[in-house]
Specification:
single chain; 458 residues; alpha+beta; Immunoglobulin-like; five-stranded antiparallel β-sheet; four-stranded parallel β-sheet; 18 strands; globular; hydrolase; Glyco_hydro_b; alpha-glucosidase; GH
Length: 458
């Protein structure tokens, strides 16, 4: 839309418009958001009709639109600059977009253009401390991308690994720098790599929060006004925190450092729950001393929440030394079977003809899931809306044990929502069997499970 003629006449494109009547028109500047909205909508529908892309999860990212854009595309906030002002604005922007239902939103980390408030001669790049803060503070925002303009002599580089070689490749520009500045440059790559890996290890949590958005419409990165609406201090005494802290879902709180040259920031812990630090830090001595003034962003999680870390690809391929929050008696074996028990509850899905079968079991004898789950498991199974059954009666659910015997219990219930294509199944925790006669963390030769057998849901 940059440079789009603002006086160009455009149709309002209202629904149920009479094709025989010329629609009213307005100038492009008045319908700016509508143009982008329709562009995203057309792209979405066009990709869905493209041969080979039918019913696929086509990923579209756009800039500028109207409320409701989340149905068709994610949003990045446009061409920003490499400045601390833009970094502070970025966090507030994504939080604010969540209020209007934007599911996937984010910014260009490090800034797209150079700092607009500074006129610097080439070579130019993002300040290393700023890039570190951007990577560490934005790592759980939905849209996480380093993007910059290299053409027309704007920026020479912005990749974290390039900072490791900056003194070698741009020695003249960095001549006379202090040891602290050298250490700062050498710290960029390992710190940024750590947070990228940490994001991927939390990919399952991101996916879970995305799926939760499908059910309740809440954003992925949430403001505290969403997670703790009854906390009235957020409207007065603690209102300074509502646009510079965010939560991934309800349980992981991220508190970015938004100003240069500081090694701490005040943090507000919402609600009455206990919180503890999630950030494990890293050792960067092999590449450069971690400057005392560059401390990583504060990441906190609620004490009652179980965190499952993944490598972003497959749990079975996860290296044994990942910083897992293991159960006190988790298996120490490095086999894929043992690593699968990092999950405290085992859920397995398979298809048998027209049946969709979900098996639910506990990992070992005497395991108690109630402190984490409560009295009832609530499982949401979904299908594409285009193939979703149109009536509740079209979907049926039965429950069996491992021997194929039917299980009847008043707590075993389900409900199907045709408008969303979502089946919600409720299973009492007490009905889910443990792996019998097994020590904690060891694999059982025989599975014990509740089998949820779904018919009519593709």
């Amino acid at each position: 839309m940059l440079g789009f003629p603002s006086r160009l006449l455009m149709s309002e494109d209202t629904p149920n418009q009479d094709p025989k009547v010329k629609p009213s028109t307005k100038t492009a500047i008045e319908l700016w958001g509508l143009y982008s909205y329709n562009l995203h909508k057309a792209t979405y529908k066009g990709l869905n009709k493209l041969k080979g892309r039918e019913n696929k999860r086509n990923f579209i990212i756009g800039r500028g639109s109207l409320t409701g854009m989340h149905r068709y595309a994610g949003l990045w906030t446009g061409d920003n600059g490499s400045s601390w002002d833009f970094w502070r604005i970025s966090v507030a922007q994504v939080i604010a977009l969540g209020y209007s239902g934007m599911t996937i939103a984010g910014v260009d980390m490090g800034g797209f253009t150079p700092d607009p408030d500074k006129e610097l001669n080439p070579p130019q790049w993002c300040d290393p401390e700023l890039l570190i803060r951007w990577y560490t503070g934005a790592f759980l925002l939905p849209w996480y991308r380093n993007h910059y303009i290299q053409h027309f002599g704007k920026k020479n580089f912005q990749e974290p690994w390039q900072y490791t070689y900056a003194f070698q490749n741009y020695s003249q520009a960095l001549q006379g720098s202090s040891e602290d500045v050298y250490n700062l440059y050498m710290s960029v790559e390992p710190i940024c790599r750590y947070y990228v890996q940490l994001r991927y290890s939390l990919m399952q949590v991101l996916y879970d929060t995305m799926f939760e958005n499908l059910i309740n419409g809440l954003p992925i990165a949430r403001a505290m006004l969403i997670t703790d609406p009854e906390d009235t201090t957020l409207f007065n005494a603690n209102d300074d925190f509502i646009d510079n802290q965010y939560l991934l879902g309800h349980n992981i709180l991220v508190c970015p450092v938004l100003n240069p040259g500081v090694n701490h920031r005040p943090v507000y812990l919402p609600g009455s729950d206990q919180w503890y630090p999630l950030n494990l830090r890293i050792d960067v001595q092999n590449q450069g001393k971690d400057p005392q003034r560059v401390k990583h962003a504060a990441n906190l999680e609620q004490s009652h929440y179980s965190m499952y870390l993944d490598d972003g690809v497959s749990r079975d391929s996860a290296p044994a030394d990942l910083p897992q929050h293991r159960y006190p008696h988790a298996a120490t074996s490095t086999t894929s079977e043992a690593k699968s028990y990092f999950r405290e509850v085992k859920i397995h899905q398979e298809y048998d003809g027209a049946l969709r079968i979900v098996k639910l079991s506990h990992p070992w004898n005497l395991f108690n899931a109630s402190p984490l789950i409560g009295d009832t498991y609530q499982l949401a199974l979904w299908t594409e809306k285009c193939t979703a059954p149109s009536a509740s009666d079209d979907v049926s659910v039965s429950f069996q044990d491992r021997d194929g015997n039917s299980i009847t219990n008043s707590g075993l219930t389900y409900e199907y929502t045709p408008s969303r294509g979502v089946l919600t199944v409720y299973v009492p925790v007490a009905l889910v069997p443990n792996l019998q006669n097994q020590l904690p963390g060891l694999v059982s030769p025989e599975d014990h499970f509740v089998s949820i057998r779904v018919s009519g849901l593709p």
